[in-house]
Amino acid sequence: MATWTMKQLAAKMRGLDMAMLSTHTSRGHIASRPMSNNGEVDYDGSSHYFTWAESRMAKDIERDAKVSIEFQHGTGGDFLFVQVQGTAQLLTSKNAMKDHWHAELDRWFTDGLDTEGLVMIRVDASRISYWSADGDGQITP
């Protein structure tokens, strides 16, 4: 079993932009959506994503803040799978959002940080599991 520190895992995750963010629905199902971490590849146990305040994802998080995020990369013998369990918060403060905003987001949120109904999801990890060609393990941040 590999035993990595958070810093070592973050280095291996560098470049993994896309993830699947999963929430619990009002009917007890699990709903997953592809999300971009906006190029923030220096993972420190927190992730940030943007969505609409009225989206199902935001409503799911308001009801149950426990979420899961899955990252993956690789083919053949070089692979990395990362599963993050954590707690999500919905943030509406422009000050909180500005440090995580990237111009590519203007594609979906045409008024930038001034887009009506914009929220940022912050996910703080409580447990991280990983599997790689070098082994697997868990980190509790």
Q: Give the H and E element order.
A: HEEEHEEHEE
Tally of DSSP β-strands: 7
Mean pLDDT: 90
> What number of structural domains do the residues give?
1
Total of helices: 3
Poorly predicted residue ranges? none
Amount of beta strand: over 45%
Question: What Rg, in angstroms, do the CA atoms define?
Answer: 15 Å
Using the coordinates above, name the CATH class.
Mainly Beta
**Any idea what the CATH superfamily is called?**
Electron Transport, Fmn-binding Protein, Chain A
CATH topology: Pnp Oxidase, Chain A
Helix content: 10-25%
Describe the protein in words.
This protein has 141 residues and is mainly beta. It has one domain (6-139): Roll (Pnp Oxidase, Chain A). The chain is built from three helices and seven strands. Strands 1, 2, 3, 4, 5, 6 and 7 form a seven-stranded antiparallel β-sheet that branches. The mean pLDDT is 90. It comes from Propioniciclava soli. Pfam families: Pyrid_ox_like. Residues 6-135 form the General stress protein FMN-binding split barrel domain.
